Amino acid sequence: MARVTAPTRAAAYPTGFWVLWWGTLINRLGEFVVPLLGFYLTAHAHLGVTQVSVILAMLGLGRFVSEGLSGPLTDRRGPAFTMIVALTGGAVMILALSFAQGFWWTAAGVLGFSLLSALYKPAASTAIAELTQGAQRTRAYNLLYWAINVGAATAPLLGGWLAGRSLRLLFWLDAATMAAFALLLTLLYPRAPRAAPQGDARTRRLLPRDALLWQFCLFSLLFGLTYQSYKVLAVVFAQQGFSAAQYGQVLAVNGALVVLLGLPLGHLIARSGHPRWQALGAALLGAGFLGHALAHTLWAHMLAVAVWTVGEIIAYGISKTIISELGPPAQRGTYIGLVGSMAGLATLLAPLLGGALLQSLGAGRMWVVIAGLALLAALLLLALEGRVQTRLARAPGTATG
Asked: CATH assignment of 12-191?
């Protein structure tokens, strides 16, 4: 029995993974600024609704651009270098943002912060892929996902308490946790010499000519447009007469379920590593958002959130594993970054799409259209399943079995 459970023990993962895990937890526990940015801009900077919306959109724009660039940088200089640049640059921009005055300087600061800090995600995903293989890779992604969500569930509560004492303190503490993570990586993350780029120019393109990659990018965009539409839920709640506290209770279901179910579901999925799990996750995401179209009570909305949260958990870890093995190892970061940039584009577009649909169709039909995007993503993945399995079977350290 010990042999079966051994891969889940701490000692089974390399030191570099635990440096990433602990650094991520520290950083996410101190991620105060982004969750409370809208409140800060409204209550402290006294900006209007339109100005705040534009500034918040800069987060998605920066992520869209930066994640696409992070991949090639990671492939050339290594994940540690890219993560340290992202965290150090993000910390500097957070500090600068605390002194920004007026709409234009604030918008520029938020965009600069997003452009630098978003370099981190593809580099971290590439680092996991380099440190692990097989079923352990899927478990590692889910362990990191769990740490991210523990921080995401805790930081807004702690940040709200700290904001009552000093809003500027949030910026300084956020920057401090980013700097601490960068220092941790500098001192403890193992370095390995990067191999010289191999292959002809076609294998080193910034935008690879790989139809399967771009089809995965389309899936990521469709999935992201559905998932990021949860931000429109606040507007729908206000229209249906719910309070802000009730909205917070509904969203708390998401964080609680990720923390409770993230690890057991992730380990279950890792046993097979079958690409169909990702399609199931997308289908459940769509079903959950479709549930909001039928929900008129608080409990019905909570149930809908529970369904799409399970879909989110299922899709997350296996999607990272698949994309990390889809391309050649020398371009792993590029593949991860391009797919990640689609999530950034979805972050930018989803509130705009949701708002337009809400005005033209009403809440019920809006949720039907949004759910349809996720179900379309699930059908796309099922159509690609055979090609994905063939590609993964050729990949070193494949998770499929």
From this structure: 1.20.1250.20
